[in-house]
Structures are given as C-alpha cells and as structure tokens.
C-alpha cells in the first residue's frame, strides 16, 4: 500500500504476476543442463576381477564435443573384494564391491563398498554397481596348487547365468584329452562332473572338503568373482536439478492471484 499524489494504491500477490517469467527461465535452465549432459559427459563400463585395478580415464569415453577430462581421470580404482548376498532360495539378492581409489601419487583418497543403487561419487565421477561375473576358480589337485581355472560364461535359455571350466587330466596335448568339468550359477556352490560327464558332487568354495574323481583328489579353494561397473560424468545434472527446483517453486507461486486497487481522492 502506498500513496502517490491524490491516489492510494494497494497491491496483493504481486509476485504471482512475475512468476510466469520465472517458469520460462527455469525451463531454459533445464534445457541448458540437458544440452550440457548430452555434449559434455563421459561414459564407460568395465568388468574387473577381484584383486585387480583399472584407471578411470582408460574406461571413460567422451559423449560430445564439450567433453573435457578432469584430474580425477588419472584415479586408479582397486577392487579389494567382490561378494554377493543371497535369498533363502539361493537366488542372488545383492552384490557388493569394496573399492579403493588412489591418486596419481599412489595415495588412497577414498574407499567405499558400493552396491546396486548405492554408487560411489568422487571428483565428478560416479561409479555404479551394475553387474557381476565369475572370473576364476581356485582348485587344489592332489594337494598341488592352487591352480586358477578361468570360468567361461555359457549360453543358457532365459536370463540365468551359468559359468563353466575344465581341469584336464592326463596328456594335455592329446587331441582327445579328458578331464573334470565344473559348473556354477553363482559363487556359493560348484557342481562337478567326471571325465565321462557324470555328476559326482557339489562343493562350496572354502569348505576344504575334498572330492575324489577317478583317483584325483580335488579341493575347491576359492571362487573369484568379477564386478561389473558403469562409470559416468554428467556436468549437466546440477543445472537440471536446479532448473526443476526453480520450475516447481515458480509454478506454485504463479497460482497466487494478483489484485490491484486504486483509490483517488477528489477535492470538494
């Protein structure tokens, strides 16, 4: 309310009159953030066995002409441990990766155990847990070893995972070499078959329980998993979030009605 000359002015909800301008500015902010995400981000994926390393910059690839690497791209990631949780039915429930990040000088700058929907964020880079695989099986053969047997993915119907490996017996250079086959759907149990393809038993890694197959004693020492990671940088995300916040605020304000009253005093 204010007085100007012989007139008295009163306003109510003046901010609602300018709210539509704020709505349009917020939409422009969202568009700018989306454009920056499309032209200035990096993305990449990698599968890393437990105990091995990778450099962030070796995995990430540019998405557009504005993509510019940062100092964090020289960070080395070490997979300390990969493990899974299971339902009572034996199905995989969740998988976790214990990751350590080292700078270019070899100093650990961060350590975190990530899982699905719980990523790691460092220096503008986000590392997501997205998949897993079976890297190798450690076995003892007649108390010798351990030997690392690479596990290969096998094609099966549906979305189930199945991995297999082969431990040759006798002359490995023979064209008709035979051996012990081992199959696994996850890291908790290994199904073992003899040279004729007959089922001989199931063993859990680290159980130290031997199994005798055609005179050969086998002990499953460990199952080494691989973690599947997705990495990305997205500089437009903060701008998009700010735009959406401003859009919601200005939209609510725009519903406030604007009223103007003018009273003019006349001299008698």
TrEMBL record:
Keywords: Cytochrome c-type biogenesis, Membrane, Transmembrane, Transmembrane helix. It comes from the Eukaryota. Transmembrane segments: none annotated. Pfam families: ResB. Residues 7-135 form the ResB-like domain. InterPro entries: Cyt_c_bgen_Ccs1/CcsB/ResB, ResB-like_domain. Signal peptide: none annotated. It is a multi-pass membrane protein. This is ResB-like domain-containing protein. Its main location: membrane. It is found in: Membrane. One of its GO terms (biological process) is cytochrome complex assembly. GO terms for cellular component: membrane.
């Amino acid at each position: 309310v204010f007085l100007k000359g012989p007139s008295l002015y009163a306003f109510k909800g003046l901010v609602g009159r300018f709210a539509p301008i704020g709505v349009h500015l917020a939409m422009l902010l969202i568009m700018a953030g989306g454009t920056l995400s499309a032209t200035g981000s990096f993305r990449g994926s990698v599968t890393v066995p437990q105990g091995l390393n990778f450099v962030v910059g070796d995995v990430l690839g540019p998405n557009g002409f504005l993509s510019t690497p940062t100092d964090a791209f020289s960070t080395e990631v070490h997979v300390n441990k990969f493990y899974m949780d299971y339902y009572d039915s034996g199905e995989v429930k969740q998988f976790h990766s214990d990751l350590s990040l080292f700078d270019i000088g070899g100093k650990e700058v961060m350590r975190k155990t990530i899982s699905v929907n719980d990523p790691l964020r460092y220096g503008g880079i986000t590392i997501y847990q997205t998949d897993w695989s079976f890297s190798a099986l450690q076995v003892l053969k007649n108390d010798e070893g351990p030997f690392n047997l690479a596990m290969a993915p096998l094609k099966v119907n549906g979305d189930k995972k199945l991995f297999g490996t082969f431990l040759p017996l006798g002359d490995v250079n023979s064209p008709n070499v035979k051996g012990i086959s081992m199959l696994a759907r996850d890291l908790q149990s290994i199904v073992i078959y003899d040279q004729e393809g007959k089922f001989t038993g199931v063993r859990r890694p680290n159980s130290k329980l031997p199994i005798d197959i055609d005179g050969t004693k086998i002990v499953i020492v460990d199952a080494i998993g691989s973690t599947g990671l997705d990495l990305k940088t997205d500089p437009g995300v903060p701008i998009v979030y700010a735009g959406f916040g401003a859009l919601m605020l200005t939209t609510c304000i725009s519903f406030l009605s604007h009223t103007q009253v003018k009273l003019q005093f006349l001299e008698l």
